[in-house]
Specification:
- By secondary structure, the chain is mainly α.
- It has one domain.
- Helix 1 packs parallel to helix 3, helix 1 packs antiparallel against helix 4 and helix 3 runs antiparallel to helix 4.
- The radius of gyration is 14 Å and the shape is globular.
Length: about 130
Amino acid sequence: MIPPTVLADRISTVDAAAILTYDAVRSVREHRIVGWLERVGCAVGSAELVKATVREERPDHSDRKSFWSEHTAIAAVSSFPYGLAFGISVTVDVGSLRVVSRKHWAWDTLAGAAAGAACSRLDRRTP
């Protein structure tokens, strides 16, 4: 049997990857790939920079890359362009699974969500 923390970690990764892939394909079809690269680059780049600077230990003690949640930032930056309610629901889903999987503290996911939402504003179609 798969432990619940491992299952939550895998589901959150699949969720974030699915919305990121959907957003990328839709951006290519709409000829908005540059905007997509700017948004996702902002979310991933800022998360990696902060992780390298802050070095907060994860709840499961696996490494020192807890702050802030890059999965949650990716979920937010990829889902907010499709509406506020959709963005919130996807981001809460991924963020809560990251906390349950013991990969992040709650404040890590809140910061990641805020960063991803802010980066999504780089694209003019975000409400």
